[in-house]
Prior knowledge:
The protein is α/β, with parallel strands linked by helices. Helix content is 25%, strand content 25%. The chain has one domain (24-221): Rossmann fold (3-Layer(aba) Sandwich).
Amino acid sequence: MRPSHFACTRDRLYGPRSNEGAFMADIPEGFFEGTGMPDAGWWEALWPDPAMVLDKAGLRPGMEVVDLCAGDGWFTRIIAQRATHVFAVDIDRKLLALSQTRLHENGIANCSFIAGDAYDLQRLVGRAVDFVFLANAYHGVPDKPRLCRAIYDALVPGGVLAIVNWHARPREETKVLGEPRGPKTEMRMTPEETIASAAGSGLVFKETAEVSPYHYATMFQRPM
């Protein structure tokens, strides 16, 4: 049976101390959680330059943006420094509270924090946006075409979806701070698989860019 909800927190588990599913206790039945909180320090080691990632993904000043599966706000802070407004969407209210604190401490006020179902993105945000950023969670989406259709509906004509994925390399090869990180090898997607997963959503493939030694970004656009 197809899951009725997709709940996500950005790529936050996958450390040597933890195993997939370890943080499922607070997730309502029927929801899917891609990840949990990381070991201290490795998330920052993995993404030392989030601004560069966002540049390559196509973020431009003045956009209205959704940071989907926003987690604790590591990318949200940089997005908010450029965007007119950013909607940080995640299922985990505790992580959103951490994100809100992070942005408040940096004097950033142009962000809305929304807990909810990613498949219901248009209703959650309430208006169409220019850019949707989804990093380190897409590999775990149960119904990828459905999510792409939901994102299509949440974009203005000409709006862009940027998906940042782990390369389809064996997990033991993607080490951060000396330990294998990221999703299980069998969950990883090639750029071609990511592009194919959006077929029929209405989104049109634009380009793929390398954003880290272990990651690529694939960009799609809602036609004008």
